[in-house]
Amino acid sequence: xxxxxxxxxxxxxxxxxxxxxxxxxxxxxxxxxxxxxxxxxxxxxxxxxxxxxxxxxxxxxxxxxxxxxxxxxxxxxxxxxxxxxxxxxxxxxxxxxxxxxxxxxxxxxxxxxxxxxxxxxxxxxxxxxxxxxxxxxxxxxxxxxxxxxxxxxxxxxxxxxxxxxxxxxxxxxxxxxxxxxxxxxxxxxxxxxxxxxxxxxxxxxxxxxxxxxxxxxxxxxxxxxxxxxxxxxxxxxxxxxxxxxxxxxxxxxxxxxxxxxxxxxxxxxxxxxxxxxxxxxxxxxxxxxxxxxxxxxxxxxxxxxxxxxxxxxxxxxxxxxxxxxxx
Length: 327
Ligand code: PBG
Known about the structure:
Largest sheet: 10 strands, mixed
Order of helices and strands: HEEEHEHEEEHEHEHHEHEHHEH
CATH architecture: Alpha-Beta Barrel
Helix content: 25-40%
CATH topology: TIM Barrel
Distance between the termini: 41 Å
Strand content: 15-25%
Number of domains: 1
Bound molecules: ligand PBG
Number of helices: 11
CATH superfamily: Aldolase class I
Radius of gyration: 20 Å
């Protein structure tokens, strides 16, 4: 045996301490962004049926929620609003008293160090559930929708959003929002662009949570075809050119190759969105006792970091923070 020449990789795996010493990627609570669904009304804390452990909360439960996150060491939240009234133009998305605007004011007043990220889109606010205005011929009108995105972003920045996160996949939304924010005096407000967003079946449970399913058709005319890779480079390059400060790739699990590719091409902070369907699959299997939830979640999120994610938007954030605190 002694004349064989081979490497002893197992030397570095002999104990937990040794493995920790050579571990290349880690999850920390400051990497995690927690999505929050804020709903109009009072005394609402409703669990989303397809997302166990995720709640729609009204403003009177918001402080409790944010304070729990702070105690867990989670420093940023991504806000989605669920208005009482929806209309064709998504008015509640850019209204000064909209639910997200009110949430932002409340969070910034009571928890000034919490980083607030506002999802900038119309789909939760439009009666038809699409991410922009509907043209007479039935398609989503890109250029007519842009000014409403700008108005939404400005109203969110005014209410105290630390970061604007446009997610509608309208062409030019970063350029339009950057210009709008600058002119309104928000030169310092960064844009976290959903640059590479696929038309994915993994968003199903989110649409229950945000009550934002399209009432006709689908989003394939604006979100990307899951079969495409080079298209992701074009999307990311456009957003970088237009002034994005962060790039999101979404979903994550089936798109690890894209996370890696975009990371290698661009130097902006890379964000992976571990979406609702990815969360629900894990929860369902865990509830059936088929998988070890903690091990699966930590393995998955660590793999996203290995793929190149600097930050991860995840519904698992609280669980992960709890596990980290306990370890
Ligand atoms: C809004 C938006 C969606 C998600 C984030 N922002 C839904 C969609 O595009 O249909 C999905 C998030 C998730 O599934 O967790 N446009």
